[in-house]
């Protein structure tokens, strides 16, 4: 009896809702449907399927074998390259994120100075490395820093600073410095553009009021410009963490034998794997020397965990500082 | 009237939305129309039948030298009246395996001919997707080509799944002027007598180093040492999943470390611009030289070096370096036509035609019985008959390491260790061997 009352009470409401959907409300759903179909087919499905693959042992050929979480246990406890590649990536990020953020702000501030002539040209010149393709950048830096014929070594030997060439791309520490330099050179202008837009959006009244109060240029920069750029800084830090974990093209091209006469493959991750980034390791495990789809998918999920944790921690720190600032 | 217009607009919107969805869904359809055994479905058969009725059979071939292969196929069609056309897909050497992997996983049509470079061949051949070309209906006659190719073309079951292409024998090229200045002669036979083994080679190298105040080197790169000494050693590194370093890599690594410490090898990375430039410089005497090197490496890198180079048998004999092969997937659509083409490459007619058309040295054995054909000259080497060493002397005792399923990992490991020995002078033989073992065991967990 009570059931009947319940269903009798629900039915009209459901019919009304269905009618609403069938009526004019159906059109928005139809129009957004293509996006969701594409998302489900090309994003959601591969994400789920990758997880399924990560639970298998599969070379990409033939039948796969279900191994449960063995691939996850392997990458976190046995495989020396997963954590090493994460470590390498964190080293690159630890240096390049502060450099591009601080450098970008300083560059934007300098290029917005009324004292500087030709700022438009300088802005374009600083931004142009960003639109250069990674392959060209890798080749350019490999030509600059080659042990035997690199321009940098030739200059250093020429001016008498060193007797023989420095093995920039063979000594792990130097190789990392070159990669950090390459990333900063490419992305500094890109960050400058963000900060430039932010600076242009700061109301001039704030600076005028500070002038009236007798504030110095440095005080205006630290007390007005930096706080007003805070949302952009926060956004770029989070994005840099995500981009940092995706680092692959530039170090791979830098350390690949693009002129090999014998078609040599080069060394994955450079000398002693010191430049093996997280994505390079993922690529090599899945499609390169190992061809292990299951382990590669597990690396992808492991990487996802690292990106989530680091982005989450960064967000927490930013929000905590924000709350402190509001108090 | 208003309602009708509204309905029309709704119907039109619905049709457009459905069309958009259909466009997306169309991309998800499988292009694979074959069953698991690789036999053609009726649809495929009908397609093939139509192609044969309407025109030439399109052979899909992967590779990295479109220009030359197109000329060769033109010659093939002209000489044999074969009713085929070539659909050539450019795939970089190092990407052939990945492309194969993604093609299979995406369920796309397999090509009819897949190229295989020596560094990847063992791993590629281990896949159970290739036709055994020694069996029906192909019945390839192994005697058409040189015996040394067989360990490089048969998989672990002994099936002939790859047909060899170009001759891969290699010797030692040297700069004549430097040899005369530092070794006292530029005659190949005298140099061979002077350098019968690697111990003597080192002693002579030390003399050159002292005479030149350490400015002249026997080799430009440690990779050269690895290439030759490892190439001379037929002992498998991994056999039946057992790692055997003592009879395989130990000798190579020992020589590499010894030559580095003796200062007779320069530190240039083989793949660097400096290495290519070194061919034209007068700083390094010897280079490994395969049958493809004079035409494709030495002359382009030393264009002014006319009659500046000589070729000799290396200490302890010739070796195999590089060389291509071709394989036919079981699921290929035009297997017989593909086989006809790649087996024609290895006929006397095909081999001679390719020398004439593109200057390739293909591997039909009978063709080289003709002394005139076995003669190979190159302007960098003056009038020296390079073929006498590469096609005659080398064939007498060349011994190659059979390809292995782990070749891709082994190649990467050797690259890593070679680079480490080159970059870090503190790494000795034991350190290098430990590095090889650690790397191999990490990447091949079930290794014994």
TrEMBL record, chain A:
Lineage, uppermost ranks: Bacteria, Bacillati, Bacillota, Clostridia, Eubacteriales
UniProt membrane topology term: Multi-pass membrane protein
Main localization (coarse): membrane
A biological-process GO annotation: transmembrane transport
Keywords, comma-separated and alphabetical: Cell membrane, Membrane, Transmembrane, Transmembrane helix, Transport
Subcellular location: Cell membrane
Full protein name: ABC transporter permease protein
Domain of life: Bacteria
From TrEMBL, chain B:
Region forming the signal peptide: 1-26
Biased composition (Polar residues): 31-51
Pfam family, one: SBP_bac_8
Alphabetical UniProt keywords: Signal, Sugar transport, Transport
Superkingdom assignment: Bacteria
The keyword Lyase is assigned to this record: no
Region described as Disordered: spans on this chain: 31-54
Record's keyword annotation contains Signal: yes
Protein name: ABC-type sugar transport system, periplasmic component
Taxon lineage: Bacteria, Bacillati, Bacillota, Clostridia, Eubacteriales
């Amino acid at each position: 009896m009570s059931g009947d009352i319940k269903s009798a009470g629900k039915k009209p409401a459901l019919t009304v809702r269905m009618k609403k959907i069938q009526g004019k409300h159906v059109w928005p759903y139809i129009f957004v449907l293509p996006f969701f179909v594409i998302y489900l087919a090309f994003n959601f499905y591969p994400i789920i399927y990758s997880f399924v693959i990560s639970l298998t042992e599969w070379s990409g050929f033939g039948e796969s074998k279900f191994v449960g979480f063995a691939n996850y246990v392997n990458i976190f406890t046995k495989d020396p390259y997963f954590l090493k590649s994460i470590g390498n990536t964190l080293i690159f990020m630890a240096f390049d994120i502060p450099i591009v953020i601080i450098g970008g702000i300083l560059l934007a501030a300098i290029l917005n100075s009324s004292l500087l002539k030709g700022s438009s040209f300088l802005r374009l010149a600083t931004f142009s490395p960003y639109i250069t393709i990674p392959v060209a950048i890798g080749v350019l830096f490999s030509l600059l820093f080659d042990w035997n014929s690199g321009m940098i070594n030739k200059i250093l030997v020429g001016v008498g600073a060193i007797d023989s060439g420095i093995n920039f791309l063979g000594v792990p520490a130097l190789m990392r410095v070159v990669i950090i330099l390459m990333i900063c050179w490419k992305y500094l202008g890109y960050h400058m553009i963000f900060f430039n837009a932010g600076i242009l959006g700061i109301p001039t009244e704030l600076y005028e009021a500070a002038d009236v109060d007798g504030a110095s240029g440095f005080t205006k920069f630290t007390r007005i410009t930096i706080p007003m750029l805070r949302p952009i800084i926060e956004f770029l830090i989070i994005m840099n963490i995500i981009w940092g974990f995706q680092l692959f093209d530039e170090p791979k091209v830098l350390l690949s034998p693009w002129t090999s006469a014998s078609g040599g493959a080069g060394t994955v991750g450079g000398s002693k794997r010191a430049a093996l980034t997280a994505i390079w390791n993922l690529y090599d495990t899945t499609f390169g020397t190992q061809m292990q789809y299951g382990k590669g998918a597990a690396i992808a999920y492991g990487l996802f965990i690292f990106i989530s944790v680091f982005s989450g921690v960064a967000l927490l720190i930013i929000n905590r500082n924000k709350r402190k600032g509001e108090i | 009237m208003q309602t009708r217009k509204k309905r029309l607009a709704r119907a039109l919107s619905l049709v457009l939305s459905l069309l958009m969805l259909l466009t997306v869904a169309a991309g998800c359809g499988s292009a694979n129309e074959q069953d698991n055994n690789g036999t053609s479905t009726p649809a495929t058969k009908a397609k093939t039948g139509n192609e044969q009725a309407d025109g030439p059979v399109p052979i899909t071939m992967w590779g990295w030298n479109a220009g030359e292969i197109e000329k060769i196929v033109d010659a093939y069609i002209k000489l044999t009246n074969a009713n085929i056309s070539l659909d050539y897909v450019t795939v970089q050497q190092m990407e052939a395996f990945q492309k194969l992997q993604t093609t299979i996983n995406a369920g796309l049509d397999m090509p009819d001919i897949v190229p295989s470079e020596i560094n990847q061949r063992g791993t590629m051949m281990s896949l159970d997707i290739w036709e055994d070309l020694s069996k029906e209906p192909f019945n390839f006659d192994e005697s058409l080509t040189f015996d040394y190719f067989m360990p490089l073309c048969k998989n672990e079951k002994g099936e002939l799944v790859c047909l060899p292409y170009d001759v891969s024998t290699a010797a030692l090229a040297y700069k004549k002027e430097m040899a005369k200045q530092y070794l006292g002669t530029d005659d190949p036979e005298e140099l061979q007598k002077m350098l019968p083994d690697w111990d003597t080679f080192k002693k002579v190298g030390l003399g050159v180093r002292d005479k030149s105040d350490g400015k002249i080197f026997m080799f430009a790169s440690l990779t050269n040492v690895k290439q030759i000494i490892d190439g001379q050693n037929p002992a498998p590194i991994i056999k039946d999943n057992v790692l055997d370093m003592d009879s395989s890599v130990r000798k190579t690594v020992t020589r590499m470390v010894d030559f580095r410490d003796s200062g007779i090898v320069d530190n240039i990375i083989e793949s660097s611009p400096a290495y290519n430039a070194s061919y034209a410089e007068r700083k390094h005497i010897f280079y490994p030289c395969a049958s493809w090197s004079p035409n494709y490496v030495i002359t382009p890198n030393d264009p002014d070096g006319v009659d500046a180079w000589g070729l000799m048998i290396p200490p302890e004999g010739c070796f195999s370096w590089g060389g291509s092969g071709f394989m036919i997937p079981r699921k290929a659509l035009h297997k017989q036509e593909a086989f006809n083409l790649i087996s024609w490459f290895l006929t006397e007619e095909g081999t001679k035609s390719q020398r004439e058309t593109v200057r390739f040295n293909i591997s039909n054995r009978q063709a080289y019985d003709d002394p005139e054909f076995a003669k190979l000259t190159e302007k960098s080497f003056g009038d020296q008959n390079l073929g006498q060493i590469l096609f005659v002397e080398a064939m007498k005792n060349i011994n190659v390491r059979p390809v292995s399923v782990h070749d891709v990992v082994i190649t990467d490991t050797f690259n890593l260790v070679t680079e480490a020995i080159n970059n870090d002078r503190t790494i000795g033989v034991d350190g290098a061997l430990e590095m090889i073992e650690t790397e191999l065991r990490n990447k091949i967990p079930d290794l014994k």
